Amino acid sequence: MKPSRTLTSLLAPPEPLIRNPREHRRDAPLGRWNLYIGGANRHVDGYVNLDIDPAPGVNVQADAHLLPFRDALFTRVECDAVLEHVVDPERVMREIERVLAPGGWAHAVAPFCHPFHAYPSDYRRFTPEGLRSMAGSLEVIETGWRTGPAATMLVFTIEFAKMLLPWRWWRALAHGLLGWTLWPLRYLDLYLLRMPYAYRVGNHCYIWLRKPVKLD
């Protein structure tokens, strides 16, 4: 008998990461229309939720390489941990640029030091400079790290332990035990992300972009 989803969620350990509070921007408000790319199995208030998978919470099923929206529609576009899963991230960024309204904001997050995770495939990793190189005509406002060295250490420790175990239920048990034991260490990132060399083993990085307003 399989445990219920509610029981599984109650027993699941906290995430082995904590987000950098400096990533949040108060000057990037939502507009009437906003797009969230990659929000399968979650509800994102205020956004049209697009994903390649028709999962719960998804409003539009589509490929990010060819967004099914007219030009200059969205005030804000979120692209959360998607670019590593697409064949052509440059094309996805140009699609984001196309559907973004003048003056609108785009926010992309991608992994650097993170285990392989196919959805449906996993092609690459990024640095802040790599994200910056795909900005196109969008103005780069800020780059940084969402999750840092502590997250990297915890995620890889858990994955390494699971890799050594032969049976699925052993791996699930190891995930739970290590997750509950180690999760307080995630708060080290609130200090480590202030260190000058944190980028060497950063976990996920981010970029904030803005579409210029054309003056007549």
Features of the shown structure:
globular, 216 residues, 21% strand, alpha/beta, 7-stranded mixed β-sheet
Describe what this molecule looks like in 3D.
The protein is built from 6 helices and 7 strands. By secondary structure, the chain is α/β, with parallel strands linked by helices. The chain has 2 domains: 19-148 and 198-216, Rossmann fold, CATH 3.40.50; 149-192, no CATH class. It has a 7-stranded mixed beta sheet. Helix 2 links the parallel strand 4 (74-80) and strand 5. Helix 4 (149-163) runs antiparallel to helix 5. The mean pLDDT is 93.
Short recap of the structure:
The chain has helices at 5-11, 89-99, 128-132, 149-163, 168-182, 189-192; strands at 34-37, 48-51, 60-61, 74-80, 100-111, 139-147, 204-210.
The side-by-side strand order for the widest beta sheet comes to 3-2-1-4-5-7-6
How would you state the average pLDDT, rounded? 93
Number of DSSP-assigned strands: 7
CATH class of the largest domain: Alpha Beta
Count helical runs.
6
Flag low-confidence runs.
none
What's the helical proportion of residues? 25-40%
- Provide the gyration radius in Å: 18 Å
SSE series? HEEEEHEHEHHHE
Report the biggest beta sheet as strand number plus sense, adding barrel if it closes. Answer: 7 strands, mixed
Return the CATH architecture of the largest domain: 3-Layer(aba) Sandwich
Fill in the CATH topology of the largest domain. Rossmann fold
| Morphology call | globular
Structural class comes to alpha/beta
How far apart lie the N and C ends?
67 Å
Return the domain count.
2
CATH-wise, what's the superfamily of the largest domain? Vaccinia Virus protein VP39
The protein's oligomeric status is single chain
